[in-house]
Amino acid sequence: MTGTLATGVARTDRGRGAGRRYERIGPGGDPIAAGGTETDTERPPGDEGVVLDCGWGRLVFGQTFPDQAAVADVLRSEAAGARDICIYLRDPHVLVSRLPDELFIDPSLTYRLPLGGARRRAGGTSEEAGTADTPAPVDSGPELPGVRIRRLRDAADADAVNRIYAANGMVTAPVDTLVDNAATDRFLHLVAEATTGEIVGTITGIDHVAVFDDPDNGASLWCLTVDFNQAPPGTGQALITELATRLVARGRAYVDLSVLAENAGAIRLYERLGFYRTATLCVKRKNPINERLFLPAMPAGYDQLNPYAKIVADEAMRRGIRVEVTDPEWGELRLTSGGRTILTRESLSELTSAVAMSRCDDKRVTRRILTEAGLSVPRGRTATGDAADAEFLAEVGQLVVKPARGEQGNGITVGVRTPEALAAAVELAARFCPEVLLEELCTGEDLRVVMIDHEVVAAAVRRPAAITGDGVHDIAELIERQSRRRAAATGGESRIPLDDMTREVVAEAGYEFHDVLPEGEMLVVRRTANLHTGGTIHDVTGELHPVIAEACVAASRALDIPVTGLDLLVPAPDQPEHVFIEANERPGLANHEPQPTAERFVDLLFPGTRAPQRLWTPAGAATSQA
Predict the structure, then answer these.
(1) Would you say 201 and 168 are in contact if contact means Cβ atoms under 8 Å apart?
(2) Which terminus has fewer CB within 10 Å in the chain: N or C?
(3) Phi, psi at residue 594, to the nearest 5°?
C-alpha cells in the first residue's frame, strides 16, 4: 500500500510446507500451532490471529484477532528494522488511545477497487456484493511499449526490487523471503521488466482468501513503486491493471490499498482507475522508521531542506540525535548527541578542514595533489588566452573546458575541437571563475565514488540525460516529460534544460526538437552526466574493480579529507583503467541508494551511535565501523 505509491505486507513466521504458511496468534502474542503444515485443501476454518510476513514487516489482519490486547502484543514484537502494519482492526482508535506511547494511527487513506467477485458465506456458499461494491471496469488499455509484467521469480528479481524500494525511501526485505513469498498463492508479487532486462517497477498483491479463507473474498495491494530513472510513463498504472486482472481471474470481490494522505499524485491515479475511499484505518508501532508519521512536529525548517540535507537529518533523527535546522536554504544543521555537537551542510561537516576543502575547491590543486600521489589524471593546463591554448588543443585533439572552481557542471564545455570553439568555451567558463582549466577529453563512463573515513561507501556510474522514443511525441515533448519525472524523483533537483546545448546535442544526432523519435530508440540529449541537468545515476558498488577502490583510498588520504566524492572516467567500473577528474568536498549522499551513505556519514560524526539494522544489504555495501 504506502511507500512511494504504496507500502507493505508482513510476516508469517511458521511454515505450511508445500502449502501456505501462516501464523495464528493467541492471547499474549504467542503463536498457536507453530510449525503447523497444511495443504490448500486442508485449511482450518475460522483462523484467528493471522499475521503475514513480507520480509520488511508483518501485515496483521486485525479482523482475525479475538481481542485488541493480542494485537498489541504482536505489534510490540516487531523486529528491529522492520515495519508492521495492522489493518482491518475494529475500533483501532480505542487501541491507540490505550497505548499512545507505543502505537499510532497511520496518516493514510484506504481506497478500494471493486472487482465484481461475490462475498463468501460461512460454509463455502457465496452472496453477491452490495451496491457499494459494484464492479469497476478493469481496463487494461494498450500494452506499455518496452515493458512486460510478470511474476517475481528469483533472487535477482528480488534484489532489483529491493533497489527500487531503497531508491524510493521504502523498507527493504530479505531476498529469500521475497522469493519464497512470490512462489505461494498468498502473494501476487509482480515486476515490470524493460526490454533491457532491467526491473523498473514492482507491485505486491495479497490474496486474503489464500491467507485465511477471508469471508469477504478480498485482497489488498502493497509496495507499488517504480524506478523513476528507468520506468516509462504509465508503468505504475500498468502494474495496478495487471494485478487487478489477475485478482478478477481468481474471483476476488475487491482489492484495497493504503496511501499517505499527502500523496496527491498517487491518489489522483487511484481515483482515475476507479478506486473509492473507505473508512479503514491502519495501526502501527512507533519506531524510527515511522517517526515522521507520528512526531507532533518536525524541526523548524525541515520541510525547506533539499534532499541532500534532509537525508542527513532523517538518519540523525532515526538514531535519536537532536536535529536543529540552522539555515534551511543553505542546508545547514546542528546535530547534538550527549555532549557532542556538530554543524553540517549536507555532507560537509566541521570534520572537514578548511585546507582539505580548498584542495577540492580548486580543480588545479586537486590535479596537482593527485599527480604527486602517483595517481592518474588527464593532461591539462590553465588557459592563458594565447596561442599556447590552441597548441595544446592541437596536441590532444579534443578538450574539456571548465572553471577551475565551481560545481553542478556550471560553465563546462565538453568536446571542444576547434580554436573558435575553444575561445567560446573559455569565455563561458570564465563567467563562473576567472581561472579556466583545459583538460584532455578522455573517453569512458563517468564514475562517482563516495569516500567516508577513507573507505569506499558507494560507487555509481552517472549517465547523461536521455529519452526513449514512443513514435508519437516529438523530442521536445519527450524531454519535458522526462524532465518532470527527474524533478519528481529528486525533489526538484534534476531537470533537463531545453537550451542551446540540448538543441546542439540533438542536432548532432540528426534530429530537431520537433521531430518524432521512433519507438524504442534512445537519444542522449546532454553531453555531461551532471545530475542537475537530468543525468541519472546507477549503483555499481558491487562491481568496482579493486584497483580503482585502492586508488580512491589513496586519493582521499592524499587530499586528507574525511568525506569526498571522487569523479573518474573509466572504460567500465569492473576494469582497472581510470583517470581522476575532480574531487567534491560535499558529495550528494541522496543520490546513491541503496548504499548506506547517510548511515556511514552519521557513523563518522557520532561514532557512539549505530545505524538501524537493515533487512537487506546491497552488494558492495560498506560495513559499519561504529
Answers:
(1) no
(2) C
(3) -95, 15
